[in-house]
């Protein structure tokens, strides 16, 4: 199936990805990881919930950590352009027969909860409490110096179907991996905000959240984080990298939080605001697709991910295998 | 005069700044500067004209160098979203009584030439020839490793008026400097593409082009360029920096090309796609506005710029003075 | 006067510069600067004295801060190879008619206090308490990430005489600035440990300590420090830089501590262990000598320094003037 | 066997490692690798031989490439302090019953060829032709920006014996790996010039040259080299890294030249000039020894190396196994 033409005139205007809510089993352990080690800033916390933002963000939260008995991802949040977009979003999802519900979320304007056809819980809102800038409060920077949430990556049981759906919502494909034998999509990167992706999809048991990525200023911040993690008890949490992605051209590192949620640190992809930007095609058998320098990803990276709370995953139809580290 | 509220629903959709055409007096000298030293890539050249692109750009040109008897800036180019936007742009400018003309430009679809109220020549188009990606042809990277054109900065005889006009076209203010005594704008940064600016305006004899900026991957690329320029005959072309801007938070360097056109190298501002992003206000008397580390800019930086071909500049009304290096 | 031939067989073996003791007027303010901002580690402290080391040092201290009524530099410390060297040092200084005295210094083996002919107080020892390595305790790194003390720079009323004396002690000249008109030395860099210098001399009212330098991993650590200092109340303490030195080729920044003691952050000079290394000569009139990128140093940098406690400075004979920022 | 106490008063004074001569089978392929890709500078070349230096070196060569039918390492070169040292070196080796021979080497003063007890061919000289500095000719920098040769690493059939011999020559151990079960040395790093090593030894079939390392300014230069090598046909030549060594704390990358000779790029170890520096002990079973971030080295890295021309290797006695990537 060919990559669909971009839908330049979607029914509603998604500005960007906004936040993710994680169910975590030990709030103190998560705080030590996300705040003390990674470098995110606490914007609110109770005994049950911690809200976090990155250094250049003025919206109230990009990660919400909620104490729970079992780890999971609750939903992916997206910011819409205006209230009209929110109403048109409701119509869009309702017409598809997907669940729509208005929910109250602290620090957000009224929020539409729905899901994509595979079951990923999605929440849309227009405004979130705005906080004073801290991007020049340099004494607060530490860890990986995360500047902003950059993207989500989800396992999908059918990347072709996921891309068709998100394409209809106006997400534009920037790069994709095709299984040469079947001509089907193995993975695709789609964006709204002008970078390589707001959300990507990878073939696998899904829906599951593969990872959440943060933009960092330079590769050296990733090296600093590796030095700190490897000498403060987080050696086993380092999963893959550092390296340069073939796809996106970004410098990357993948780590796992105390519950196994995967976080990527990501630096320097490219600007994609042109509506006529040509998607770049990669072959599933090209090892440089994953890592430009040739190193394959470990098996865990291909197999493990966070289930969405209450959403069962299904096996993918496409059985093609990427190159996996021995 | 307060900063105008952003116009989120402009008459036509400007995607981003696109390119500038410079009149240069010695094409070989300009080539040595832009290609051999700075690191831009030639996409076409004749004895009269050189077209250049930066490393991640797929559009044909971001700088056009034209041989001429006198140095100058011919026009600023902007990319529009679709053909309807181009037609609505024509109407917009015509209604304002500004000149509109359809011109042919090599490698571009039909192009609308007009000007802003102060006389800055503007050219709008929808599509430009797309070239194969070179962002992973790492053997071509050198000089400052320019990734893409980032913004223009223009002297304006009335920044208040310029901001009002560009605001109407949908440019949103991200940061601005106010003269506390008169309450008038001394400078403002306005964007379309989701960074701190596509075009900024600074109080001064105008209209003139103050500088054209290129995004580079990290401060180290700027340091590399300084080392090369200072040891290959370009010592006098280094004008200001390196430093961290207070406004935009970017790491910067300003250099002058062989004709005196000012080029900035710029790294790491922040994402501004939120329609409710709050502009940041700076006081003209705050030295950290210019350089977070306190160093004032030299007099030449405040006084010199490139006239637009055939457009006379006028003195600004606002006589407030910034802090200038002694 | 020509630069003397290196004395490859000095009477005693100085391994490297070791430490400096500063008299400071407000110990808490000094602690906030050196520990919280710069990133040095406290190895001992009382209400009167703070001992500091840098991240890769295993010796007990590289800076000693002593509470005093007036700011000053008490002495420069150097490590000798063995006890025989210490005894031969005593003979060397006594023969010159310079004061020699055995003093007790905490954490050091017996220490010889003496002075150079201009009056710089020098202290020599063989062993200092050794501490466990912390260079891989990455959670402790912050500020400029200082790795080790790198060099001293002193004003001298006669650089020719200083170089002759230190040359006799085995310090080898790596680079020097000559006043072309008189043929006299205006400045010289001399080393023992295999870098560009352990101690340098600059023409001026002296003896005074011009600055003490710390080696940092990369220019980015200096940029980080600038960002922090300029946003945490230390804007006025930034004196010169960042830049690339012509002499030494190092990337540099000069800041002032709360008492005005000047500290340099310094990265990437070159290896000088070859006994036949040729000194590099610079002309006093060459602006790239100071800063490869052409920016002259400010007047304060040429005129201000720390007096050694109880040692009066004398005016230099050589009146030649370097290029000073207007 | 415990690590021997440093011999601070060796019979002769070795200043530093100097150069290596490689037998290569395709001089043009080697030139493309070392000059065009890595960034070393040619100082002389004929149809049979290429001499190379790194950017801050003033001696004539650090690598000599000689056309040959079979790949190999001809000898390791070291610089001595003075002619007396050269004569005392001859006596030292002759007394041990090791071969001594005076040879003529282009661009070097008279040269003593001998070998260590396991058969590593060693060449000692005092002076080499000195060339004008190029460390500020920044237009010449490219590839990994190699600044200077940093160290050799050799497989040894008995690291205990190698360390005892080089210790007697004045090399001081900075770090070492012990096989906990037998108490024998598995690897050791020994220096003369004040860094972590001039030469290291690793348990294995030997003598063989494991790798030759070059100092580069920062981790970013290693990332740049990876980007270039992986996109210009050298993907398969990337063997291990990038990463942070536990031992030495340096940032590293290992690549293979067209004949399989292994080259390391290495940045930021620490200063070791103190004669009382305490060696750091590592356990062979500690994975952070190899890579602080936990990634084990591939099998090829433990097994492959360059034989010295005409010298047969012997199997090591110690059979302990390090952690190898699956």
Textual characterization of the structure:
The structure is a homotetramer of 326-residue chains. Chain A has two domains: 117 residues, 2,3-Dihydroxybiphenyl 1,2-Dioxygenase, domain 1; 163 residues, Roll (2,3-Dihydroxybiphenyl 1,2-Dioxygenase, domain 1), CATH 3.10.180.10. In chain A, a hairpin with a 7-residue loop joins strand 11 and strand 12. In chain A, strands 9, 10, 11, 12, 13, 14, 15, 16, 17 and 18 form a ten-stranded mixed sheet that branches. Chain A contains six helices and 18 strands. The two termini of chain A are 31 Å apart. The model of chain A has no long low-confidence stretch (mean pLDDT 97). Chain A is α+β, with helices and mostly antiparallel strands and 326 residues long. At the A-B interface, loops of A face loops of B.
Strand-helix topology:
The structure is a homotetramer of 326-residue chains.
Chain A: E1 14-24, H1 27-38, E2 41-45, E3 49-53, E4 63-67, E5 72-80, H2 83-95, E6 101-103, E7 111-115, E8 121-125, E9 148-156, H3 159-168, E10 172-179, E11 184-191, E12 199-203, E13 208-215, H4 219-230, E14 238-244, E15 251-256, E16 262-267, E17 280-283, H5 287-290, H6 299-303, E18 306-307
Parallel strand pairs in A: 1-4, 5-8, 9-12, 10-17, 13-16
Antiparallel strand pairs in A: 1-5, 2-3, 3-4, 6-7, 7-8, 9-13, 10-11, 11-12, 13-18, 14-15, 15-16
């Amino acid at each position: 199936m060919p990559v669909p033409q971009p839908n330049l005139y979607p029914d509603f205007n998604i500005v960007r990805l906004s936040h993710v809510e994680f169910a975590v089993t030990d709030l103190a352990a998560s705080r030590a990881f996300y705040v003390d080690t990674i470098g995110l800033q606490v914007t609110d916390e109770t005994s049950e919930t911690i809200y976090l933002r990155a250094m250049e963000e003025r919206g109230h939260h990009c990660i919400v950590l909620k104490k729970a008995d079992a780890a999971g991802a609750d939903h992916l949040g997206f910011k819409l352009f205006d209230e009209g977009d929110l109403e048109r979003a409701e119509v869009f999802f309702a017409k598809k027969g997907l669940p729509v519900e208005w929910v109250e979320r602290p620090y957000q304007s009224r929020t539409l909860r729905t899901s994509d056809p595979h079951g990923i819980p999605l929440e849309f809102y227009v405004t979130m409490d705005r906080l004073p800038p801290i991007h020049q409060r340099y004494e607060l920077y530490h860890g990986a110096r995360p500047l902003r949430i950059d993207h989500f990556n989800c396992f999908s049981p059918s990347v072709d179907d996921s891309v068709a759906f998100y394409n209809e919502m106006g997400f534009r494909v920037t790069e994709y991996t095709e299984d040469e034998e079947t001509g089907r999509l193995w993975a695709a990167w789609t964006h709204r905000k002008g970078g390589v992706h707001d959300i990507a999809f990878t073939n696998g048991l899904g829906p599951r959240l593969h990872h959440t990525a943060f933009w960092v200023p330079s590769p050296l911040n990733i090296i600093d984080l590796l030095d700190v993690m490897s000498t403060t008890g987080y050696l086993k949490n380092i999963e893959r990298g550092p390296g340069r992605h073939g796809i996106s051209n970004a410098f990357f590192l993948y780590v796992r939080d105390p519950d196994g949620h995967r976080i990527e640190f990501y630096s320097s992809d490219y600007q994609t605001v042109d509506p006529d930007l040509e998607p770049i095609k990669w072959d599933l058998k090209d090892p440089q697709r994953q890592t430009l320098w040739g190193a394959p990803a470990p098996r865990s990276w291909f197999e493990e991910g966070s289930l969405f709370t209450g959403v069962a995953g299904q096996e993918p139809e496409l059985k093609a295998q990427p190159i996996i580290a021995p």
